[in-house]
Write a structure and sequence with these properties.
- This protein has 125 residues and is mostly helical.
- It has one domain (14-122): Globins (Globin-like).
- Helix content is 64%, strand content 0%.
- It contains seven helices and no strands.
- The protein is globular.
- Its cofactor is heme.
């Protein structure tokens, strides 16, 4: 199977690789002075559940065998008041995580394109 017939999930390295990325990205987001407010006053159990839902969402969206049981992105992010500035800070952390794991450029482009496709569902104008 060549890289053009593999799913993004396979090209990224499967569930273990996606989990490693999430395990790096979430602490970056939580520690960020601008974005940390989204996790303030949340219990660790809720954060762990959210992390697993994110892993499931990313695996399923990338073509993996995972079933995502969470809510739609619009409903999940409704009322959070995520701004354009918040979105851009998030993208910077995501790029840093992808660079840390030396994700190849083609896969990085596909991941960024997918994430950008979610922007209107997450950012409140």
């Amino acid at each position: 199977m060549n890289s053009e017939t593999k799913t993004l999930y396979e090209r990224l390295g499967g569930c273990d690789a996606i989990t490693a990325v999430v395990n790096d990205l979430l602490p970056r987001l939580r520690a960020d002075p601008q974005l940390g407010r989204f996790w303030a006053h949340r219990g660790e159990d809720g954060i762990m559940r959210e992390k697993q839902l994110l892993i499931d969402f990313l695996c399923a969206s990338a073509g993996g065998p995972t079933y995502y049981r969470g809510r739609e992105m619009v409903l999940t992010h409704q009322g959070m008041r995520i701004s354009e500035s918040d979105w851009n800070v998030f993208l910077g952390h995501a790029a840093g995580t992808l660079a840390k794991f030396q994700v190849p450029e083609a896969e990085q482009s596909d991941v960024v394109a997918f994430v950008q496709s979610l922007k209107t569902e997450c950012v409140e104008c």
